[in-house]
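Backbones bend. Shown next:

***
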Amino acid sequence: MIAWRAGAAYPPAGPFVPVAGGRLATLQAGPERNARGTVVLIHGASANAADPMEGVGRLLAARGFRVIAFDRPGHGWSDRLGAATPAAQADRIAEALGSLDPGPVIVLGHSWGGAAALALALDHPERVSGLVLVAPVALPFPQRVALPWYWRLAAQPPVAWLLSRTLGPPLALYYLRGASAQAFRPQPPSEGYLERARVPLAVRPGALLSNVEDLIGLPAALERQSPRYGSLSVPVLIVSGDADPLVRIEAQAEPLAKRIPGARLLRLPGLGHMVPWVAGDRLAEAVADFLPEAASTR
């Protein structure tokens, strides 16, 4: 019933793009012709395409960009497609971009989506003209520190399947507002965030299970992916709040900027994790300023 109500309240709101084995859902905004450029948005954990689209995407569209936000595989209305790692999800997004044919794009990845954006640039460089990584999770971290024991237990296939279809949805729904407030710290949540970002879609069984798999598998995926960051040849802008309690700037953004040749770090004093919402105008301005640098790589 929880899943049905969430799906009925937030039905698909953009076109689907066929890929091998299924389809990816998108939200799209801005002009398709004579656009200043195309920006692809990749959301973080426990979210869907509406999160970055409503935070910063529509501000970019108002500035003349074509904006394409993807529901990552298994989230929102996208099929799971067996894609749990950043690299596997980047492969599906690259395939979808091949169908949409927007040319090389600026990829903006937030949080977990930063890892997927990096994988897209590493494995499909012909699709990417530049990266904007917002509060990115990109460097390895100790799994024992990042994820408590009950997450690891929940990730075991039989337990995860059972929890996602019994206790998981009502518990997730109960804690939804509090969890959103934690994500915004130290700022208060943006008005109407839960509805505008279509957050209740994340409490459905499939999305809950996908989210757990994504989080549990991320440390090992970053161990494999991060040694390649030095080979990136596209312009990279990293944007992070220095008061982010979830993805600390000194643990991720700062060392990441040193690993990627020519990467620039934009530090936002006093801001937390939800930069696309609490500083959407500043982020859209940074993307617009970044455009000439990205365009020169095409």
Notes: Residues 205-225 form the longest helix (21 residues). The two ends are 48 Å apart (CA to CA). The beta strands are 16-19, 22-29, 38-42, 66-70, 105-110, 128-134, 236-241, 264-268.
